[in-house]
Amino acid sequence: MRADTQDYRQLFLNDVPLLDARAPVEFAKGAFPSAVNMPLMLDSEREQVGICYKQRGQQAAIDLGHTLVNGEIKAQRVAAWKAFTEAHPEGYIYCFRGGLRSQLVQEWLAEAGVHYPRVTGGYKALRRFLIDTLDDAIRECPLKLVAGLTGTGKTEVITALDCSLDLEGHAHHRGSSFGRRANPQPGQIDFENRLAIEVLKARAKGSQCLVLEDEGRMVGSCTVPVELFRAMQEAPLIWLEDSFENRVDRILQDYVTDMRAEYAQLYPDQPEAAFAAFSEYLLGSLLRIRKRLGGDRYQSLDSIMRQALEIQQRSGEVHAHRDWIAGLLTHYYDPMYAYQRAGKEERVVFSGDKQAVIEYLAEQSITEG
Fold first, then answer.
1. Which of 170, 226, 270, 337 has the fewest beta carbons under 10 Å from its own?
2. Residue 208 and residue 27: Cα distance in Å, rounded?
3. What is the CATH number of domain 8-127?
4. Where in the chain is the domain with CATH 3.40.250.10?
5. pLDDT digits (tens, 9 = 90+) for 211-225
6. Beta strand 143-148 pairing with 164-165
7. Single pTM value for the model
8. Any idea what the Cα angle at residue 90 is, between residues 87 and 95, rounded to 5°?
9. What is the set of active-site residues?
């Protein structure tokens, strides 16, 4: 029989399946990537028990909980929990503090013949562990930032390294005016939890530094934790270089081909709705930077984009999109990045193409301590 655990490090390093017994509203505010919400009480039930607890005390609240979750409702929930334990024999149960709710789930499972362990301290202790993990890493690990013009493939460098922290990946946003994805971003707590778990895994592999993309404080709606962002403002920059042609190709793939596929998955049986949503994404992204482009340039790029969308919808051909991408790079992104680099020039310690940058950073992750 497996014992309850407070080895939070191993839980996250091994992506151990977790049965989250909290109410759905609690799970929605923040959870962990390997957790599945299978609540003891639904939101309305938890609200009633909470009111009872405030008015009549703990025992009355416990009695009400047993009344609300009883009979067929209880049988259904126990059956669902049991199915989870059979699918994930290595997993654990947790609630908010590792208290009454997870203990009750554990007891009811035992009555059904299943002995399944809990996480001591519950969600609160797990969350605290991840906050401390990220804080320790910021204090102890040198940071290195991958910078470069739009479309040079900074994310490709990040994903190629074991010592990296993928801010855009965890935020589910590409960090630019065209960065929105078809599916929504995670909540702030989920974003922070994923960052901390990636840090934990990188350090467990022996990484002596952490590599991130040079980002602003906001990645879409997700906020880079304040201490991490402060450290990023002083970190050395590794400048990634690539040809204009390759950059256009990469942006075409990311913002046109891949995004069209994302919307197709979102509307699997509605091709017209999928293309309409994709078109709205492109046109809306351009509209958001209208003031910075200037009226005439915006109108020109908007017209080119609409023509490219018409051709794509009619024939599936995406080549016409290259014209507005080239215009956007030339007149918007490149001047902006050139201005930003001028203020950071003294922090640039290495420049090169993708392979050279990957090799440099891989070496740094081993040698720098």
1. 226
2. 34
3. 3.40.250.10
4. 8-127
5. 999 999 999 999 999
6. unpaired
7. 0.92
8. 90
9. 95
